[in-house]
Design brief:
Length: 343
């Protein structure tokens, strides 16, 4: 019996939180499900001790069986290559520490502030630039909301709040609604942007209550969904993205360029085309943030630029994401190449 069918048996109404608590956290179990085997798992476990495996069954079901090179598996499987180190790869490559202005609030860019809503995720992406973020003393709980509002009031040029984490949609329904409603009631805020992988890795999270909360807001709501490969965008994912769009949410995507996962022309082209069919516009293509443990995913800049130029030749301009890098202390993202005029 699969875990998902166990969930269904134990509860007549399976919900997203039950699915989340049933996620894979043991590399050997995930590999067994996929029909993969290694004699010695010790280095995989060592990598998992630094940053544990976490992946939902829904996402694992989209992986190809018996394939070590599956692009979804490679995003989540702790790997011995993560134990390689170099001084160029840091615990805080984008300068989150420098931008922290209040517990749970980062202010890097003009007009926007980023709120760390939670440290929890539904998936652990091996390339995550917040792998080592100190969430325990830097997440915005209810008691910190007052000081966050005071900071916003003192900086009234901020008119966009970015909900990040962790993944803000892992907050329970009532906690999320409370936070979202509180932000919606701040007059100076015009847009609320949610950065999340949940529509992709746990589509059941996009439930009626969440949709009603988003629709009820008097602010413009933007969701950035962080897909890296077209295989992530199943029909179920497409359905929830349509629901989000129908509830007034503007959908954008940002991708990380990952060596061995999506650093080829066909993968990037297919991703943009599939996103568009899922009502989502490609927004950013990020080169890897140089975080410790992820150097094996880094593609050199010259090759990245050549690949990007070919992508521009393949797609209409509105489907070509901007190729960017985030740099610590810089008040905007660095454009590595200009996306073309629409044509
Ligand atoms: S979902 Fe986002 S915050 Fe969580 S591990 Fe993946 S990249 Fe990092």
């Amino acid at each position: 019996m699969t875990i998902m069918s166990k969930v269904a048996k134990n509860s007549p109404i399976p919900n997203w939180q039950q699915e989340l608590s049933a996620a894979y956290s043991n590399p050997a179990e995930l590999l067994a499900y996929l029909g993969l085997h290694v004699d010695d798992m010790s280095l995989f476990h060592e990598a998992a001790e630094k940053f544990p495996l976490l992946v939902t069954h829904s996402y694992a079901q989209r992986m190809k069986k018996s394939s070590w090179s599956d692009p979804l598996l490679r995003q989540v499987l702790p790997h011995p290559d993560e134990l390689l180190s170099s001084p160029a790869y840091l615990s805080d490559p984008v300068g989150d520490g420098l931008a922290s202005v209040s517990p749970g609030l980062l202010h890097k860019y003009h007009g926007r502030a980023l709120l760390i809503a939670t440290g929890a995720c539904a998936i652990h992406c091996r390339y995550c630039f917040r792998r080592e973020f100190p969430y325990s003393n830097n997440s915005a709980n209810r008691s910190q909301l007052t000081s966050i509002k005071q900071y916003l009031a003192a900086n009234n040029e901020i008119n966009e709040i970015i909900l990040s984490g962790g993944d803000p949609l892992t907050l329970g329904d009532s906690k999320f609604s409370h936070l979202f409603d509180a932000l919606s009631n701040i007059e100076q805020i015009e847009r609320i942007r949610i950065h999340t992988r949940l529509p992709i890795v746990l589509p059941s999270r996009i439930n009626t209550l969440l949709l009603s909360t988003l629709r009820a807001s008097n602010k413009k709501v933007v969701m950035v969904i962080h897909a890296n490969h077209a295989n992530e965008l199943s029909d179920e994912v497409a359905d929830v993205l349509l629901k989000l769009k129908d509830h007034g949410v503007t959908l954008l995507n940002q991708t990380v360029l990952l060596k061995g996962i999506n650093d080829d022309l066909d993968s990037l082209e297919q991703l943009s085309l599939r996103l568009f069919n899922c009502h989502t516009l490609p927004y950013y293509l990020h080169v890897l943030d140089k975080v410790a443990g992820a150097m094996h995913f880094d593609k050199n800049e010259e090759d990245s630029l050549k690949l990007y130029e070919k992508l521009q030749q393949r797609l209409p301009g509105y489907l070509v994401p901007k190729l960017v890098r985030e740099e610590s202390g810089k008040p905007y993202k660095t454009l590595l190449a200009h996306s073309p005029q629409n044509h």
